Amino acid sequence: MAKLSFLRLATLITLYPIMVLLLGACSDQSVGSDPKSVLFSDSTPAVKGTPASPNYVITLPADHLAHPDFSVEWWYLTANLHDENGADYAFQWTLFRFKTRDQINAWDNGQSYMAHVSLHSKNKHWFAERFARGGVGNAGVTEQPLSLFLDDWQWQADEGQGLLFPSTITVRNIPDTQMKQPAQDIEVSLHLSTHGPFVLHGQKGYSVKSVTPPLASHYYSQPFIQVTGGLRVNGQEHQLTGQGWFDHEWSSQLMDTSTAGWDWFSIHLDNGAKIMAFRMRLPGQTDYISGSYIEPNGTSTALSSSELALVPHSQTQVAGRLFPLTWRLSLANKNIELKLQANKSDQLNSGRFAYYEGALNISGTHSGKGFMELTGY
Amino acid sequence: MRLLFWYLRTVLQSYPSARFRLALLYMALMIGCLGVSAVLVINQGAQQSYAQQGQGLLPLVEYKLVAASAPQLSKFDYAQVHRLGITEAVAVSQISTILYSAQHQPLTHQPIDIIGFDTLALLNYRTSQQQKQTRQQGQSQQSKLALELTSLPQNSAFISIGLYTKLREQVPNHLEIDDSIVITTAQGQHLPLLQQVNLANMDNEIVMDISLFARQFGDTPISDILLVGEISPQRLNDIRRLLPAHLTLLTLPSSEQNTGMRDSFKLNLLAMALLMFVVCLFIVMNACQLLIMQRLPMLKIFRQLGISRLSIITGQLVELWLLTLLAAALGVYFGVTLALYLAPGIQATLESLFRVSVGFAEVSYLSLFVQVLLLSTLGITLAALLPVKQLNQTLYRADSTSPAKSFWFTPMTWLLLVSAAITLWLSQTIRVSLMGIALLILAGCFVLIACYPYVLNATSALVPKRWPLLHWSLQHSLWLSGRSKIACCAFFIALMSNIGMNLMVDSFRQATHDWLNQRLIADYYLYQTDNIDAATSIKQLRLNIQAVQRFELKAQYAGLPIQVHSHPSATSFIAALKTQSQLPDAGAVYAAGQGAYVNQQFALRNKIKLGQSISVPLNSGVSAFAVVGIVYDYGNPYGQILLPPKLFDDKSKRSNVLALYASAAQMNTLSEHLEQQGFNRAQQLYSADQLLDLSMATFERTFIITDSLNIVTLLVAAISLACGIIVLMQDTKPQLTLLRTLGVSRWVMQGLSLLQYLFLCLLALVFAIPFGVLLSWLLINFINKQAFYWTYPLNISISQITSVSAMGLLLVSVIILLPLLWTNNKPLIKDIRWLS
């Protein structure tokens, strides 16, 4: 395939925007452009969806389901885990949905899906991605019980009534990225239960991503997830426990093509508080920084750039590119000064797009764990 | 090195005195290289154009999923296997159609496969492929297509450059990618935008995403669920374990059916090349011998000058390799030229015969030259072994003695015969069968050589002593047979393969003629197009014409595509079926709708016996029928099931051919009426006789290649024999000169020499006939059966055997006469001088 530049790709109107954009980026070996940021690209979709609106009221559990009228949507789970010996693991499970067309036929309901699974141990990284179209039956979001699935990777609620938790995530057949060999017998089965409420980000779930141009999404999280489960690798069983963070976000208001990327953090402080923070990098403009501070009881406060400082501290070369793997996060009002550092440097997800997604160690005024996502580097 | 250079320079200086022999050697080498080059070019261009369900288009497709009981796979099955974790599964939908222009003019003569793949599932393959790319740089054409497909722009389909060019030639002003597409299918559905793609494995296909396919062609059922990519044995076990009960894993018949067609085509060409190579080897061997014999005095002087035998032999071999280098260069050039010159004719013939496309567009001269040079160097080294060995002995001894008869000869002959029989008995594949046939041919040569002394002695004993010259002549034949083994074997092989091929082709011709004659029972056959509806016209015109239109469905049986056709159950129609075997009450059971006729291809492929029950997908369901008869269906690559028309519902697809029972006057009225709707009488209406003549003419055209090859083989074998004779003449000079000095006239001597050689050839012919008949039987019942799953009765035509024999003997007589006449022109005194 001819090498296509990212910008050229961004101008293509394609049958499957995600597919082509991802492929194009892949052929350019561009690193750091994660699916989220690319899917916000203004010229990406062939079909315009319903724009995010500040008047939209998020209603749960109904809004756990898909929003097919919106152009793009994702269900994102990240988890900081450890096994019975105290060894750390970082897990990511994501299902993306894209509205691809208005016309439907026997093989296409106008929606396409992509799933990513990533698992890090101290020395290993398993990562895989899969694709499927809607309307066939092997990918989608269904209720009673709520189920998110693509092939045999599934997240299924234990009970009906459309509730997302408690639930179980099961994934199999994830290749070891170092071995370049399919590890057929790898299996992760995690049980998720919650001990706190869902949190709506921004203005009651209306999350502004940039002022100029005005871009926003509907965004809520569940940061109080207790994770237990098992990991089987090459016949060896490991018991995993830890804490997880769930994001659900959907939008049709797309980012400007000149958007450079974003940096996103989810933080579990040891005192029970949670922080979500992100920085949109907009060339020629000041970075857009926003976030949420969540009390241990679930009460959340939207954070503006005047309240939240998010500054890269040092850069590290990963796969030939420099990534800011150490950050400083400050919340002056809360007397929080944190140093956020990647657990290990090699946490690159080498899918269609290579982007950085991995576990964090947190030190400073508080300790804790978390996840970091860096795109566009 | 210096010595070698000196040797070669001296040999070069002797070239003017050995023009004929050198030319013979060089020509043999060049023809061999030319033939091999041409075949390699054709083989290189041969593609699997009719890749069934696109399995030849995608990478590493060795398995597919089939429904054990249901007539076909459903979208639900597809989703289910993915949800069970079989992510290698890729759904395929396919239609085959003639393409038409906006003006409803057909653009293709053969149906084009339009294939839809689930490109999103292919993305999974792409991911795994990219992860492997760091350790595996090479990419197959299939991988490239899979990767290209996943980046196919919206509303676009891929088309091969070749097919695109063909279509463009038909509609040069309209077929532009950026213009609105005006190509339609037989059903009038428009094709999407076409993007050319240059991939060797794509030919007569148009491929696209399955969603676009569904949009363009409606809710076409899944043709196949293929497993794409490398699947380890462990993963295969997992997949078997994961599969739901009603689905099974089928190993694709890559070497049996689909690529079997391509392989048999390639095999055929390789056999042709091999035959040519072997025959050229004989000539080269004899030409080498001739050359060495001529320069023997010079070589003996070299020895006297103190040059070692090893140096002389090395110099001789180096000279031959240099000649090979030159011959290979010219041979490659002429071979490619020949292949390109023959391209249109070969293309048409091979497409009809093997259903493969032959592309000649890209030829890598360097790669071809290297291949041919290696092959011909190996060949000439082999061919030179015997002459060089003899040279070695000649340079070592003062005179040569007759080699002792080898004691291992007879056991070797038996061993070869038994090996050939066992190989053929156990053979399940074409390659093994070809090996068995090669062993049989070799055994035949050994039988011939082993029998020569017995037959010649017996014949000699029958000749009265009062005819001393004849008696001497026969005895001398025995001596000759020992010296011309290779040439006699070449002639034997040529005759045997000629008889075998001719009998096979003649049997096929006869079988095809009988079959067509039996099946074409209607008076006329009318080929309808979209705008022609003959059946309605017949009603409108109130013509008393009986029109029979068959239903034709495409289905799958045991995971392979089959045809389910209707065939009337009236006695006359049942009688029109040429059956290999049938039940006694076949017609009645069939007419009652309880029985089915199946073609030989279906029966052989699925090991179906008479009376056995088969489940036939029909009218959105599956019905069971007993097999009441197995019918011949020559040339059909698919298995076929025939059922009475009453079993098909009205929704079933009808053939565009109408069989009409009508008088010439009625047909004239109908044609005149249809011509107002654009009917082309010359191209769309045929009488049964015309159709038969047309089919047989096509048949004859198809086998022109075989006929030409036969004559070439015979000619080359005869030349080989002539070369042998020239060599032998040198050896028999003393005896012949002695006889002449005793008063035997030149003409009597010539007659006796001709008699000796012809007698040897006649004996070769006598042995070649039974072996040839056996060969034709093997070709029909092993090679044809294993390649195409159909056979036909062997017709041992005495006239064919006689004509091949006569042609062979005539050709060999003429060729033998040439060196004899050449010798005859020499005055006796020259020979006597030679003696002194």
The tally of domains of chain A stands at 1
CATH architecture of chain A: Beta Barrel
The rough form of chain A would be described as globular
CATH fold type of chain A? AttH-like fold
Euclidean distance between termini CA atoms of chain A: 23 Å
Q: Rg of chain A from C-alpha positions?
A: 19 Å
Could you give a short account of the major beta sheet of chain A? 13 strands, antiparallel
Structural class given helices, strands, pairing of chain A? mainly beta
Distance between the termini of chain B: 38 Å
Q: What proportion of the residues of chain B is helical, as a percent range?
A: 55-70%
Shape of chain B: elongated
Q: Helical stretch count of chain A?
A: 3
Give helix and strand order of chain A, one letter per element, not per position: HHHEEEEEEEEEEEEEEEEEEEEEEE
Mean pLDDT of chain A: 82
Number of domains of chain B: 4
Structural class of chain B: alpha+beta
Which chain pair shows the most residues in contact?
A-B, 41 and 46 residues
Mean pLDDT of chain B: 76
Q: Profile the largest sheet of chain B.
A: 10 strands, mixed
CATH class of chain A: Mainly Beta
Question: Topology, pairings included?
Answer:
The complex is a heterodimer of chains A (377) and B (836).
Chain A: H1 6-11, H2 17-27, H3 35-39, E1 72-82, E2 88-99, E3 111-120, E4 125-133, E5 139-142, E6 147-150, E7 153-157, E8 167-172, E9 187-194, E10 199-200, E11 206-210, E12 215-233, E13 236-251, E14 261-269, E15 274-281, E16 288-294, E17 300-303, E18 308-318, E19 321-331, E20 336-342, E21 348-350, E22 354-364, E23 368-374
Antiparallel strand pairs in A: 1-2, 1-13, 2-3, 3-4, 5-6, 6-7, 7-8, 8-9, 9-12, 10-12, 11-12, 12-13, 14-15, 14-23, 15-16, 16-17, 18-19, 19-20, 20-22, 21-22, 22-23
Chain B: H1 2-13, H2 19-45, E1 46-47, E2 63-67, H3 75-83, E3 89-97, E4 112-117, H4 119-132, H5 141-149, E5 156-160, H6 161-170, E6 193-197, E7 205-209, H7 210-217, E8 224-227, H8 233-242, E9 247-251, H9 258-294, H10 296-304, H11 309-354, E10 357-358, H12 365-396, H13 409-426, H14 430-462, H15 468-483, H16 485-519, E11 524-527, H17 534-541, E12 546-557, E13 560-566, H18 571-575, E14 579-582, H19 586-591, E15 595-599, H20 600-605, E16 613-618, E17 621-631, E18 639-643, E19 654-661, H21 664-675, H22 681-684, E20 685-687, H23 688-702, H24 704-741, H25 746-788, H26 798-824, H27 828-835
Parallel strand pairs in B: 4-7, 5-6, 13-18, 15-17
Antiparallel strand pairs in B: 1-10, 2-8, 2-9, 3-4, 3-8, 5-7, 11-19, 11-20, 12-13, 12-19, 14-17, 15-18, 16-17
Helix pairs in contact in B: 1-11, 2-9, 2-11, 2-12, 4-5, 9-12, 9-24, 11-12, 13-14, 14-15, 14-16, 14-25, 15-25, 16-23, 16-24, 16-25, 16-26, 24-26, 24-27, 25-26
